[in-house]
Specification:
globular, 9 helices
C-alpha cells in the first residue's frame, strides 16, 4: 500500500512539477558531484540491464523448477508475468510523464533499470527462498534478502551517480517493482498481499 501511495505521489509531482521536483533535482545534482569512481557507479547502474537481470531471474526459475522436480510452475509463471508487465508499464509511464533526465533527453520517469532490478532480483529471492512463510527469519533468508537489498539499492545509487536518473525516478521504479512483486507473490501463493 505504501509503495502504491509513493508511486502515485511521485507521478503527481512529476506531472505538476510539484514542490518535490526542485528538491529531487538538487539532490540528484549533489549525488552526481559526490559520486564514487565512474567504473563502480557504471557497474552498479548496469545491474538493471536486461542482459544482467533476466539471466538472474531465469536461473532462479530453473533452480525452482529443478528443486520441485518440475512441479510448482505457478510461482515461476507469476514472476515471469511480473517481469513481462514491467516493461510496458514503465514505457507507458515514461510517455505519460515525459520527464527530462539529468543530462537532458525526455522520458526518464520512472527508472526502468530500477524496476527491472527490483523485479528480477526480488523475484529470484522469492523463488529461491520458497515463499515468505517458510523462509522468513531464517539466517539464509536474511542473508539473501540483505544481498538483494544492497544490490537493488546500489543499482539505484549508480543510476543517479551516473546521471541516468533523478532520485524520484529510481524510487518510482522501485515502488513499481514492489507492486508487481506483491501481486506476483499473491498469485503464486494464493494469499493476499500485505497491502490488502
Amino acid at each position: 500500500m505504501l509503495c502504491g501511495l509513493v508511486l502515485v505521489l511521485t507521478i503527481w509531482q512529476v506531472l505538476t512539477r510539484g514542490m518535490l521536483i526542485g528538491w529531487d533535482e538538487d539532490l540528484g545534482t549533489d549525488m552526481r558531484r559526490a559520486a564514487p569512481p565512474r567504473a563502480l557507479a557504471e557497474a552498479l547502474s548496469d545491474l538493471g540491464n536486461m542482459e544482467v537481470a533476466l539471466p538472474i531471474l531465469a536461473a532462479a526459475m530453473a533452480l525452482s523448477l529443478l528443486r520441485r522436480r518440475g512441479r510448482g510452475r505457478r510461482p515461476v509463471l507469476c514472476y515471469a508475468v511480473a517481469m513481462g508487465l514491467m516493461a510496458p508499464l514503465v514505457t507507458g509511464l515514461k510517455v505519460w510523464t515525459d520527464r527530462t533526465g539529468p543530462l537532458g533527453g525526455e522520458g526518464y520517469f520512472p527508472s526502468g533499470h530500477a524496476a527491472t532490478t527490483a523485479v528480477a532480483l526480488g523475484g529470484a529471492l522469492l523463488l529461491l527462498c520458497g515463499g515468505l512463510s517458510r523462509a522468513a527469519g531464517s539466517p539464509a533468508w536474511m542473508l539473501v534478502t540483505a544481498i538483494v537489498a544492497v544490490l537493488v539499492t546500489g543499482n539505484g545509487l549508480g543510476l543517479v551517480w551516473r546521471g541516468y536518473h533523478w532520485p524520484l525516478d529510481v524510487v518510482a521504479g522501485w515502488c513499481l517493482g514492489v507492486l508487481l512483486l506483491s501481486a506476483a507473490w499473491a498469485a503464486a501463493t494464493g494469499r493476499r498481499t500485505p497491502a490488502e
